């Protein structure tokens, strides 16, 4: 949009020729089409002020018939630690274990920190270009970087505060006790962060209970959430998940604020075992965060959702030393989910968009319009597509992004 080519401090905007979804068209019980119509959308401050009938002659920003959707949320990223912005480097096949990667990070972090602020900003720009306006970012806490990863990330986010939102997870990538990070975790939890993280307690620290007792108690004492990286499969992985379920049931303050990222152990259970633990996760209010792996590990996302487990989606690695292929694009993640689990109908594709927006959808399951409404946050994307189903299936181009009423592009 020609009039949306730069960030603006104007607190009021009116958009005309905005395409919005209004309902489903049915053939019997089957949804065969998504109905749409053009509207004017007014924003004031960080909120949507009004949705009114379209007036193509109105003095307003012309959306040119593009579809308006809720802006996207990346719920697992590492803005502080990646190779984005550095010369191209693929993943090394010589680093085969998490401990191999820890040793490599201990060597490289001092060099990476020299440019981490500007590269974090570049990565934020890249995510925004694909329609993401909100990011849950982990940041390293370890004896090598101390609190510098957090300080640098905070600087980058401060520079971008008008155009991006974030929540931060203190992440002891090098283990809690394996590298004597416990004292740092006891300090960082007092800072302006949202979650306490952890990583593979049994394989890195040699115990499930010792690191998890510390991390969960810190979260409880300081009113933080928990987001644990858990790559471990088999018995140790399941026991760690069960540990968090039990802690969340014992401490209601953790309900809805406790997440297991990756949780690969869930992908290697029998159907009855998966059903059982999914029901327990839902009962305890413990969510799963996934980057949607495929190949030998296919996460049981449909089954988790069937039981009411909150499943959040993120890109995780975006060209870093762990993974070469992160797309940095939530629509690509949504299309991957649709392909993996067979969500190919108009209705199913439209529902799959929820994984990119953290469950904010224009239409409810019956086709009733539920977004946008006056009073909703003005977090918007404009895409070149006819409906949500097409957006997911074709990864439609994002033409504009609005965050809290601020036009990003």
Automatic annotation (TrEMBL):
SUPFAM superfamilies associated with the record: Composite domain of metallo-dependent hydrolases, Metallo-dependent hydrolases
InterPro entries, alphabetized: Amidohydro_3 (IPR013108), Metal-dep_hydrolase_composite (IPR011059), Metal_Hydrolase (IPR032466), Metallo-hydrolase_Enzymes (IPR052349)
Lineage top rank: taxon: Bacteria
A Pfam family the protein falls into: Amidohydro_3
Domain Amidohydrolase: 170-408
NCBIfam families: PRK06846.1 (NF005312)
Name of the protein described by the UniProt record: Amidohydrolase family protein
């Amino acid at each position: 949009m020609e009039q949306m080519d730069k960030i603006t401090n104007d607190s009021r905007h009116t958009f005309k020729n905005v395409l919005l979804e209004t309902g489903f068209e049915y053939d019997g019980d089957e949804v065969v089409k998504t109905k749409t119509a053009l509207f004017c959308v007014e924003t004031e401050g960080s909120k949507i002020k009004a949705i009114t009938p379209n007036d193509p002659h109105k003095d307003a920003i012309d959306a040119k018939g593009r579809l308006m959707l809720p802006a996207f949320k990346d719920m697992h990223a590492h803005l502080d630690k990646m190779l984005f912005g550095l010369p191209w480097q693929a993943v090394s096949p010589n680093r085969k274990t998490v401990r191999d990667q820890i040793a490599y990070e201990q060597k490289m972090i001092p060099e990476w920190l020299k440019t981490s602020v500007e590269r974090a900003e570049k990565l934020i720009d890249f995510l925004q270009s694909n329609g993401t306006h909100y990011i849950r970012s982990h940041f390293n806490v370890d004896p090598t970087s101390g609190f510098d990863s957090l300080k640098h990330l905070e600087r980058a986010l401060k520079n971008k505060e008008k155009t991006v939102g974030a929540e931060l997870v203190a992440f002891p990538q090098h283990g809690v006790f394996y590298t004597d990070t416990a004292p740092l975790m006891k300090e960082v939890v007092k800072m302006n962060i949202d979650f306490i993280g952890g990583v593979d307690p049994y394989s890195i620290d040699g115990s499930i209970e010792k690191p998890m007792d510390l991390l969960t108690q810190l979260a409880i004492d300081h009113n933080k959430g928990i987001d644990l990286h858990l790559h471990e499969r088999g018995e140790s992985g399941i026991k760690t998940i069960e540990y968090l379920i039990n802690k969340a049931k014992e401490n209601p303050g953790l309900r809805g604020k406790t997440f297991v990222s990756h949780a690969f152990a869930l992908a290697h259970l029998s159907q009855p075992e998966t059903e059982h633990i999914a029901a327990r996760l839902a009962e305890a209010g413990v969510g799963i965060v996934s980057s949607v792996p495929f190949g030998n590990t296919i996460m049981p996302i449909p089954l988790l959702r069937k039981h009411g487990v909150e499943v959040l989606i993120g890109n995780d690695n975006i060209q870093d030393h762990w993974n070469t292929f992160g797309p940095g694009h939530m629509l690509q993640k949504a299309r991957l989910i649709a392909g993996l689990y067979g969500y190919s109908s108009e209705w199913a594709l439209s529902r799959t968009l929820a994984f990119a927006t953290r469950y904010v959808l224009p239409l409810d399951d019956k086709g009733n319009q539920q977004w946008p409404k006056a009073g909703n946050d003005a977090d918007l994307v404009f895409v070149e597509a006819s409906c949500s189903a097409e957006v997911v299936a074709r990864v439609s181009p994002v033409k504009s992004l609005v965050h809290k009423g601020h036009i990003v592009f």
